[in-house]
């Protein structure tokens, strides 16, 4: 199989799951061409991300004149197809937040993608996220490119399905993938009933070999770690509030926040306001090895998110045999089992979050170790990279055989 992966900004520190998927598909014999629209503006601290960047072709590197040339070539060589794609871009742009002009840019990007797919002998396109990358894949298909599919993660696609033309993207796709049953249910809301058999679940994955022989829970006072972008939906501000409410009852408790983002100044101000500087550490972004070191030194992961798909950090923590405190949202309850592999709490409830932390602290270490081992066995059974890539490859094969035409 010759597969083109259509991506927006790639690689990024939070998209290691895409890299794992690509590598697993390649290990299974697929040839992958990586077509991203733009380079990451963030510094790539992980060597594997830098390697991926070197393997990726960037559409916007063509520049404005290059994109115009690709667009005119498509328009002149197949005017009927181009007119149909132009109408589709106009319709999507008219109801979107970015607007029509942005979708005309997507059309130009799609022209470059379609021509690159033709020159590379691509059999099928696959996009990650139901946002602009999938819009480009749809338009490239309309311009004569191969059939396409896409993976949705949430929560962005769930927040604005109409503005993202999610229904149109599903109608034109050979198939669509969600990373959880919850995600599939959200796709079913926007897909015609007769297309439901084309909605599949393929989990994001971990590489079990990277989590062999996880270290035992550390001795000493309770240490919790949170990993993620510092943005509202991740809920880190609730962690600061929960730590403040625990107050003098948990003086030895320490929280490490791994990540960075637009909310960092607000988090730092809240930490200072509550006099928690000695009990909360901010590390900035870390590479995969650094994340594993933080998980190894912690007794558990805590994730107070308001909106998610199915977070990779939960899978990685469970693979490290660490119990998880998380909110009862989206696909998380499909993986985390309350009182078995961790604790689930209502999103936005600071008191419940603080109580879960107190419960974890009060749990005997041997019981926490048992919960961590149960978490490890569960995630290894459900999120193996090779197994999930094989499922996705089978969907690709069926789509290619069927001609990838499901309009």
UniProtKB/TrEMBL annotation:
GO terms for molecular function: glycosyltransferase activity. InterPro entries: Glycosyltransferase_grp1 (IPR050194). It holds the Pfam family Glyco_trans_1_4. SUPFAM superfamilies: UDP-Glycosyltransferase/glycogen phosphorylase. It comes from the Bacteria. This is Glycosyltransferase. It comes from Pontibaca salina.
């Amino acid at each position: 199989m010759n597969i083109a992966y259509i991506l927006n900004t790639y690689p990024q520190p939070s998209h290691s799951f895409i890299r794992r998927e690509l590598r697993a598909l390649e290990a299974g014999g697929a040839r992958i061409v990586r077509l991203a629209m733009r380079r990451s503006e963030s510094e790539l601290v992980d060597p594997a991300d830098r390697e991926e960047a070197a393997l990726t072709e960037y559409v916007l590197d063509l520049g404005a004149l290059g994109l115009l040339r690709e667009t005119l070539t498509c328009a002149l060589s197949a005017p009927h197809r181009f007119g149909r794609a132009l109408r589709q871009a106009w319709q999507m742009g008219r109801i979107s937040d970015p607007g029509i002009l942005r979708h005309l840019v997507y059309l130009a990007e799609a022209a470059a993608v379609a021509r690159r797919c033709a020159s590379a002998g691509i059999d099928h396109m696959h996009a990650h996220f139901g946002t602009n990358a999938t819009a480009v894949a749809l338009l490239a298909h309309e311009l004569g490119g191969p059939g396409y599919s896409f993976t949705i993660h949430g929560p962005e696609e769930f927040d604005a399905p109409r503005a993202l033309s999610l229904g149109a993207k599903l109608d034109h796709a050979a198939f669509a993938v969600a990373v959880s049953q919850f995600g599939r249910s959200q796709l079913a809301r926007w897909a015609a009933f007769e297309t439901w058999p084309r909605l599949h679940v393929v989990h994001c994955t971990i590489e079990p070999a990277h989590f062999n022989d996880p270290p035992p829970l550390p001795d000493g006072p309770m240490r919790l770690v949170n990993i993620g972008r510092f943005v509202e939906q991740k809920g880190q501000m609730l962690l600061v509030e929960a730590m403040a409410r625990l107050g003098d009852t948990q003086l030895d408790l320490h929280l490490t926040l791994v990540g960075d983002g637009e909310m960092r100044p607000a988090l730092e101000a809240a930490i200072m306001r509550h006099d928690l500087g000695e009990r909360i550490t901010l590390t900035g972004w870390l590479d995969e090895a650094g994340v594993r070191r933080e998980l190894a030194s912690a007794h558990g992961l805590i994730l107070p998110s308001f909106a998610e798909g199915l977070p990779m950090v939960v899978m990685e923590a469970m693979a490290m045999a660490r119990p998880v405190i998380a909110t009862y949202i989206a696909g998380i309850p499909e993986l985390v089992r309350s009182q078995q592999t961790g604790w689930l709490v209502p999103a936005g409830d600071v008191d419940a979050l603080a109580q879960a932390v107190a419960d974890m602290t009060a749990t005997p270490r041997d019981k926490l170790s048992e919960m961590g081992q149960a978490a490890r066995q569960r995630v290894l059974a459900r999120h193996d990279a090779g197994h999930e890539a094989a499922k996705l490859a089978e969907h690709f094969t069926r789509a290619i055989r069927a001609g990838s035409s499901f309009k």
